[in-house]
Amino acid sequence: MNTHEGVSANTARRMVAMSAVVCTLLGTPAAIAAQSVQYRSPAGIAFRSQPDTGAIARAEAQLAAEPMNVQRYIALGIAQSGARQFREAIATFTRGLAIAPNDVMLYRWRGHRYLSVREFDKSLSDLQRGYALDSTNYGILFHLGVLHFSRGEFTEAARLFAKAQPRAPDAGELAGSTDWLWMSLARAGRLAEATALLARRPDSLQAPPGYAYAQRLKLYRGQLNPATLFTPADTADVQIATLSYGLGNWYLVRGDTANARAAFERAVKSGGWPGFGFIVSEAELVRLRK
Q1: What domain range includes position 25?
Q2: 134 three-class SS
Q3: Are 86 and 49 spatial neighbours (Cβ–Cβ below 8 Å)?
Q4: Which residues, including other chains, have CB under 8 Å from residue 184's CB and lie 6 or more apart?
Q5: 8-state DSSP, 211
Q6: pTM over 0.85
Q7: Within this chain, do residues 191 and 150 fall inside the same structural domain, yes or no?
Q8: In terms of domains, do 41 and 21 share one?
Q9: Are residues 87 and 128 in the same domain?
Q10: How high is the pLDDT of residue 3?
Q11: Which of 49, 186, 227, 259 qualifies as a cystine partner to 251, CB 3.0-4.6 A?
Q12: Cα–Cα distance, 37 to 44 (Å, whole number)
């Protein structure tokens, strides 16, 4: 319950407490009952949001104080996304678009979150609208690239990542766009270009320690191998999904379908369902069954 929607803070707290009591009486933990289903996999697994730890409530209060400030809608949607409340974030960005229908960042973020919940056509529509408004926006270019890659449209993905890469805002994004560009070129059958890309080392800026895309690039360059790609620190679900997908794609490029399939299966068993590695692994497993 949002306290700015006509309910006092004290009343809201009482209602939350009452909800917790009801959930306990029904044998349902309150934290679980408050988590909404965001995505249901082809295997029927329901993936849920996470509870707010305070960031969403703060962003909601700030938006309530400035309801015509587009940045407040973006901040709230990002906070919701941090708790994997992607459908709620989509609703927030939609509210923002009602007051700023040509804001490219709202399309960038809503398109990203439609991708997270596997509403691919809506994601494509938003990202294409954003591209029409600003064809140089890094987030638009990157996420359009991921979307086309997931659809097996590797040539178009390579074009988009090549355009995104020099616009990367930091070392982490530079490693990510280089990684996806290498994968796109390799899957498009342009291995010589992919190899030349790695040789140029465009990702030479220092990415954060343990950054999954930087680790995957080391695999492609032969600095790591499948046995050393994962470290003991790699326990987070999205990290496992990201590394597993990169390994699976590396195997696939090398013609090793069996090990590729095993890596993609590891990605989708990781629990890191919002990660692109998880999303694209789902698509790869469908393609491998054909």
Answers
A1: 1-34
A2: coil
A3: yes
A4: 145, 149, 154, 155, 157, 158, 161
A5: -
A6: yes
A7: yes
A8: no
A9: yes
A10: 33
A11: 259
A12: 12
